[in-house]
């Protein structure tokens, strides 16, 4: 799978999960567990596989990549704040949810406008497919909560790449 598509799929999933977290009728504990796992795994896959590849391309501003990693760290801090905020729906929990959602929404928007557009223009289709495979494998090994989609993506992207190894965790 094209790494840009893989990341965009995650971004849309983050938005769905935030919608569930805001809703009093939502499965908030389950949504928070999935969001935590996905955020950490997503950031790890980007920082280990995607950002280094983009950084090597001379056309891309390194500051954008550094900034993306800084925003991941900020998102993780906001996530910790929410995990420590007690019961869903309390005033402090709502406040921490707003902080996290603001931080992540800002990051997704910026990453889509800068890094992902750069990746589309500077990396070949084949390279994006290789990175998608590596990123899906990294993500699958970083998370036990969201294995099915990532493993499926990893399997699909490995077909047609003769040198691609299957994920050990798949
Ligand atoms: Fe990111």
What can you see in these coordinates?
The chain has helices at residues 3-22, 28-56, 62-83, 91-113, 115-122, 125-142, 147-158. It has one domain (3-158). It contains seven helices and no strands. The longest helix has 29 residues, at 28-56. The chain is elongated, with a radius of gyration of 16 Å. The protein has 170 residues and is mostly helical. It binds fe (ii) ion. Fe (ii) ion is lined by residues 43, 46, 68, 72, 107, 111.
Descriptive keywords:
170 residues; mainly alpha; 7 helices; binds fe (ii) ion
Total number of distinct structural domains: 1
**H and E string:** HHHHHHH
Envelope shape: elongated
Rg, alpha carbons: 16 Å
Strand count, sense and barrel status of the largest sheet are:
none
Question: What is the share of helical residues?
Answer: over 70%
Main structural class: mainly alpha
Roughly how many Å apart are the termini?
A: 16 Å
Low-confidence spans: 144-164
What is the chains' assembly state?
A: single chain
Q: Using DSSP, what is the number of strands?
A: 0
